[in-house]
Amino acid sequence: MTTRITPLMSARAITKQYGGRNGCRNVSFDLYPGEVLCIVGESGSGKTTLLNTLALRTEADSGALHYHATHGEMLDLLAMSEPRRRLLMRTEWGFVQQNPRDGLRSGVSAGANIGEPLMAAGARHYGQIRATATQWMERVELDATRIDEFPAAFSGGMQQRLQIARNLVTGPRLVFMDEPTAGLDVSVQARLLDLLRTLTSTLHLSVLIVTHDIGVARLLAHRLMVMQGGEVVESGLTDQVLDDPQHPYTQTLVSSVLPV
Amino acid sequence: MNAPDPQLDGAPFDRAAEGYNFAYLDEQTKRMIRRSLLKAVAVPGYQVPFASREMPLPFGWGTGGIQVTAAIIGRDDTLKVIDQGSDETTNAVNIRRFFARTTGVKTTRRTSEATIVQTRHRIPETPLTDKQILVYQVPMPEPLFRLEPRTAETKKLHALADYGLISVKLYEDIVHHGGIATTYDYPVIVNERYLTSPSPIPKFDNPKMHMNAALQLFGAGRERRIHAIPPYTRVRSLDFDDHPFEIQRWEHACALCGSRESFLDEMIVDDEGTRMFVCSDSDYCHDRREQQTGDAGESGEPDVAVKRAEGESA
């Protein structure tokens, strides 16, 4: 007999549409603790809409969304009050934006960017906040002596790592990522992916990651959901889906990766 | 120095300018402002919107404070107006004259005699009593505005008491200046609930707001907000555990009255860069000097003080 693991997040028939069109339809899945679930699909397939809906950044039209909180309670996310929702986002979740400038505060230093979630959670000791920020700069392979520089002084890849540090500093259990490697050159991308893989496994993070890049999915994800036209057309273990694609779209997707 | 203000010595009521309603604003407007004031007092530190009117002075010169004063002033009140602590600066003189003309109420320079003190950027050194109201002129009532540009979002942050952001500002201060370098408009938490901007008073005055016996009203004319700190309300200045809140201190004593407890202004008195530190609260300084001359005659008084005393007795 195996013990059943409770899923961290479970979605049932999530639908979010814009005026009855586009968006995503009827998406169901379970995300288990420590699992990296990747949502792949072409541009306009509803990946980001789905991610935003799951992260409660946009309101779902219909469906059910449950989350298993730290204290063991099963939360109905769609019915939750805003203060609790914000508390959850602050303490248990992270959200990494595609463009690091959307996820960072440009007017304050790198250290303040990393420290802000801590201060929002109630940290009031400057020395400790700074020490944690320094530690996280090192963990995401940034030069810790640059802690007082503004985000604009960092390169695109560094900004992305800064954003990741900012999101992980509160020790979240679930992190949403929207194309975290898009717009970065390949070598930087590879290092970032490597870093993400290390962090997710050492911190035992659950990750929901949106990407159009099959390589990212192959490297990071345990499981895969392929979306087309707002619906999930195929899902399963990453290797299984990518090595033996069943749906015509997935087959096109896999075969259209440029060989090196 | 200044010509004596003819309105200072209690102009009779019938000298109020004709053609204007009592205290300039119409009764309807005053009632509207009073409703906002009541709400502000009921929810300490909460910014209540009000329909700010155009006043006969530019935004940033005290349009908010003047409207609050106009809404609360009565015929029996005695008004004192200070600007950076002084009764004699342009802003203070003009607002005092404005109310003397439009209401005919008594005006004064003495903090202890006033029932309403309208202030720009200072709290009088003389402790206020529960018979007094302090009206602040506020340029920017929203303490989060440099950090969060969206008003809808700041409202939400206030509603949820989500104030992590303001610590970021203090953090940045320590990063760039080695200590909390905010010296005025130092953010406070009122009644352990609302994050509030105390208007640009020096942080030296922040502790005076805590458990003050007087009612403190804040009017922001351009931003159309009123907030209040009722009497005996807790007011806590934000800080870090390892960088506690501190007020300014001076190595000097006031050159005129010798006070070491009051807020000092630095003045450059000649082209060689000679400096002098004097009390920013002119009434407090004056009182102390009068006490000293009463005690020890005219001896040992600095020149400026003697001149001023002569000017006033004449």
Report the C-alpha radius of gyration of chain A, rounded.
Answer: 18 Å
Give the CA-CA distance, first to last residue of chain B. Answer: 12 Å
Low-confidence stretches of chain B: 9-13, 297-314
Quick one: which chains have the greatest interface?
Answer: A-B, 23 and 19 residues
List the strand order in the largest sheet of chain B.
Answer: 1-9-8-5-4-2-3
Helix content of chain B: 25-40%
Can you list the strand order of the major beta sheet of chain A?
6-7-8-3-9-10
Key features?
heterodimer, A: 260 residues, alpha/beta, six-stranded mixed beta sheet, four-stranded antiparallel beta sheet, 10 strands, globular, B: 314 residues, seven-stranded mixed beta sheet, 12 strands, disordered C terminus
Tell me briefly what this model is.
The complex is a heterodimer of chains A (260) and B (314). Chain A is an alpha/beta fold.
Helix-strand layout with pairing:
The complex is a heterodimer of chains A (260) and B (314).
Chain A: E1 9-18, E2 21-31, E3 36-41, H1 47-54, E4 62-68, E5 74-76, H2 82-91, E6 93-96, H3 100-103, H4 110-120, H5 126-139, H6 156-168, E7 174-178, H7 186-203, E8 206-211, H8 214-220, E9 223-228, E10 231-237, H9 238-243, H10 248-255
Parallel strand pairs in A: 3-8, 3-9, 6-7, 7-8
Antiparallel strand pairs in A: 1-2, 1-4, 4-5, 9-10
Helix pairs in contact in A: 4-5, 4-6
Chain B: H1 27-42, E1 48-49, H2 63-72, E2 78-83, H3 90-103, E3 106-107, E4 116-120, E5 133-137, H4 151-159, H5 164-177, E6 188-190, E7 194-196, H6 206-209, E8 215-220, E9 225-229, E10 235-237, E11 264-268, E12 275-279, H7 282-296, H8 303-313
Parallel strand pairs in B: 2-3, 2-4, 4-5, 5-8
Antiparallel strand pairs in B: 1-9, 6-7, 6-10, 8-9, 11-12
Helix pairs in contact in B: 1-2
